[in-house]
């Protein structure tokens, strides 16, 4: 990383409440240890605490199906070249039921063409619903503004208002995550390539 990592235990001279923040993040990660992202954020314990609460809600408390959550996160990772984010969330998308062909499309589909909404069911291994997720993710990540056809398409393929809010929050959140990871080179991944779908399917 471009900075040192924070210690894995709260320093003895930490401000009041720091130990509780470490415990909060450990509880969220259990049974895994703290990861490099945590140890980067823990330079600022209040930021680390807020981050953990927000991302914890996105990861575990939405009504979204796992494949509807992991596919757009993986697409954000591709668009922002966030290697760690791709390696983790593309594997989770595969486990959630997105096909290998579909994840190849998520990894390699051209951006900015605005043809996603005209894709036929099953094209590139993705359903119409999954193409809609790709289109919405691309618009939010690259252009920020989402045009009406892309937004209305979410409703047409069956997303209800709560799911649209959660999906939008998840895409925004993982744009934040990927930009933090890449800017600081957390985990020393910037010089690595995105893992292939075939490699990820064996994880």
Q: Quick summary of this structure?
A:
By secondary structure, this protein is mostly helical. It has helices spanning 18-29, 36-41, 45-60, 66-79, 83-95, 100-108, 128-143, 148-156, 161-184, 197-201.
Q: How would you describe what is shown here?
A:
With 203 residues, this protein is mainly α. It is 61% helix and 0% strand. It is globular. The mean pLDDT is 94.
Q: Write down the overall geometry.
A: globular
End-to-end gap? 25 Å
H and E string: HHHHHHHHHH
Question: What structural category arises from helix and sheet content?
Answer: mainly alpha
Percentage of residues in DSSP E strands? under 5%
Average of per-residue pLDDT values: 94
- Measured as a percent range, the helix fraction is 55-70%
What Rg, in angstroms, do the CA atoms define? 18 Å
Biggest pleated-sheet summary? none
Q: Which stretches are low in confidence, meaning pLDDT under 50 for 5 or more residues running?
A: none
Count up the helices: 10
Question: Using DSSP, what is the number of strands?
Answer: 0
């Amino acid at each position: 990383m471009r900075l040192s990592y924070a210690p894995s235990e709260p320093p003895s001279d930490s401000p009041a409440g720091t130990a509780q923040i470490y415990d909060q993040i450990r509880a969220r990660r259990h049974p895994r240890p703290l990861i490099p992202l945590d140890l980067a954020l823990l330079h600022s314990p209040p930021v680390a605490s807020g981050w953990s609460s927000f991302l914890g809600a996105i990861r575990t408390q939405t009504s979204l199906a796992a494949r509807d959550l992991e596919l757009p996160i993986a697409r954000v990772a591709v668009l922002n070249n966030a290697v760690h984010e791709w390696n983790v969330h593309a594997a989770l998308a595969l486990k959630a039921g997105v096909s290998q062909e579909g994840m190849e499309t998520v990894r390699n589909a051209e951006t900015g063409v605005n043809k996603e909404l005209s894709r036929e069911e099953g094209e590139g291994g993705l359903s119409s619903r999954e193409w809609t997720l790709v289109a919405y993710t691309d618009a939010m990540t690259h252009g920020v503004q989402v045009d009406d056809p892309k937004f209305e398409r979410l409703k047409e393929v069956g997303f209800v208002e709560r799911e649209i809010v959660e999906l939008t929050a998840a895409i925004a959140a993982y744009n934040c995550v990927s930009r933090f990871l890449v800017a600081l080179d957390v985990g020393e991944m910037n010089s690595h390539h995105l893992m292939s779908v075939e490699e990820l399917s064996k994880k």
